[in-house]
């Protein structure tokens, strides 16, 4: 028998929000799942490339790769680097069915520089879609849970579609990842005109190479989107 809680993340989140919590990082009590002091310490604002959200010097707007090969994004914003303690927090949310993490992680994302203006100026907020098999496995789409807490009135989870499963991306170079994802995203055919001339925000939890976001953004660009901003909770940065 299927677990009904996996099909009702909004109810689960509502119940968890009423329960006193302990900070998952410093163990402060009572607290939100991640306290303000830990957010300040472990998710400080950082200079990042406007095209791919990789770290850059403060005086640099875009990295050399994005200048040489501009991605199909007008902006890409990340709340934090994908380093401790965030991988475990995101895993609790993404892989262990704890949808209650959506609210604090969305708050973390919203607090990052330039995210609030991007949401306010957008016409549509689209979560990165999951293929049907992966959605059944997890019980909910973590990107959708984040998106609907960032901008519930603008979020549309049925416009951008994942059309097929793709092989694992780990171990592949960026060009191979892009080839792997070719044709993996599409607009809902009967509503494709909804993106034409609109300002779109794409939401995802973790950005590694950017291949998935870039592939989805290219579909939106081809569909006539006027402006595309990607918002990601965490960005995998190269080794220092």
UniProtKB/TrEMBL annotation:
Belongs to the ComF/GntX family. Residues 138-234 form the Phosphoribosyltransferase domain. PANTHER family: DNA UTILIZATION PROTEIN YHGH. SUPFAM superfamilies: PRTase-like. This is ComF family protein. CDD domains: PRTases_typeI. Gene3D superfamilies: 3.40.50.2020. InterPro entries: ComF/GntX_DNA_util-trans (IPR051910), PRTase-like (IPR029057), PRTase_dom (IPR000836).
């Amino acid at each position: 028998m299927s677990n009904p809680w996996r099909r009702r993340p909004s109810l689960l989140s509502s119940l968890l929000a009423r329960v006193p919590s302990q900070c998952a990082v410093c163990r402060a009590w009572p607290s939100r799942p991640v306290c303000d002091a830990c957010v300040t310490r472990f998710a400080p604002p950082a200079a990042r490339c406007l095209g791919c959200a990789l770290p850059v010097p403060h005086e640099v707007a875009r990295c050399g790769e994005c200048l040489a090969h501009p991605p199909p994004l007008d902006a890409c914003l990340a709340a934090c680097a994908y380093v401790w303690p965030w991988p475990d927090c995101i895993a609790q949310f993404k892989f262990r069915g704890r949808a209650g993490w959506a609210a604090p992680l969305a708050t973390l994302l919203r607090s990052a520089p330039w995210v609030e203006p991007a949401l306010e100026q957008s016409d549509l907020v689209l979560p990165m879609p999951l293929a049907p098999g992966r959605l059944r496995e997890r019980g909910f789409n973590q990107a959708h849970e984040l998106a609907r807490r960032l901008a519930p009135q603008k979020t549309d989870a049925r416009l951008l579609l994942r059309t097929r499963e793709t092989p694992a991306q780990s171990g592949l170079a960026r060009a191979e990842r892009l080839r792997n994802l070719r044709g993996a995203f599409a607009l809902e055919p009967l509503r494709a005109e909804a993106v034409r001339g609109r300002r779109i925000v794409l939401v995802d939890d973790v950005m590694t190479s950017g291949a998935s976001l870039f592939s989805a953004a290219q579909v939106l660009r081809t569909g006539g989107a006027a402006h595309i901003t990607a918002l990601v909770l965490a960005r995998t940065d190269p080794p220092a």
